[in-house]
Amino acid sequence: MPYFIIFSAIFLAELPDKTSWATMSLASRGRPLSVWAGSALALASQTALAIYAGQWLARFPRNWVHGMGAIAFLGFAVWHWRESREPNEGEDSVSSRATPGARLFLQAFLTVFLAEFLDITQLATVAFSTRYPHHPVTLFGIVTAALVLASGISSWAGRWVQNWVSPRRLSQLAALLFLSLGIWTAWSL
């Protein structure tokens, strides 16, 4: 299992994602740790659901599933490339009052959990799970670590990440990784 490639693809795909922008917006209202914890729990929950879906799909004929996985990865590459060509949108407005930690945790959990349904990183996790059906725990750890790290960056350093690496560049890097994964998956058929 290509641990680094999976981690990098998920991490780079998550950074410019709507979930990261929502996390940054919520973190601006109060305690970043509460936002990160709520976001991390939601991301881990969604990862478990995606791996379960991938395990179910892995019951189908191997060539069919891998072919669909290759198509999905190539689709993710196109999706990210097109996203990198769109003009950047500004951040949501920042609330001037602080939100209590427990309420912020719940807001972050619900916002991220709902935003991740059928998100590109969740769909990629399903595809990875069909590709590596015998390693669900390892895959869960890799994907969750990538998502939680991206969420942590969004919670604590979101404004500075924008100054270092543009969302457009992150989308381009994610597109190249997914293109490579799609070609590699198709090649291994």
Q: How is the secondary structure organized here?
A:
Elements: H1 3-14, H2 18-27, H3 32-57, H4 62-85, H5 101-115, H6 120-131, H7 136-164, H8 167-187
Membrane topology: Multi-pass membrane protein
InterPro entries: GDT1-like
GO cellular component, one term: membrane
Q: Count of helices?
A: 8
Helical content (DSSP H or I, runs of 4+): over 70%
Low-confidence spans: 90-98
E-strand count: 0
The best one-word shape is globular
What's the N-to-C terminus distance? Answer: 16 Å
Largest sheet: none
**Total individual domains:** 1
Radius of gyration: 17 Å
**What structural category characterises the helix and strand content?**
mainly alpha
The succession of helices and strands, N to C, reads HHHHHHHH
**Beta-strand content:** under 5%
**Overall pLDDT:** 80
Please tell me about this protein's structure.
There is one protein chain. The chain has one domain. The protein is an all-alpha fold and 189 residues long. It is globular, with a radius of gyration of 17 Å. It has helices at 3-14, 18-27, 32-57, 62-85, 101-115, 120-131, 136-164, 167-187. 79% of the residues lie in helices and 0% in strands.
Features:
mainly alpha, 189 residues, globular, single chain
In short:
The chain is mainly alpha-helical and 189 residues long.
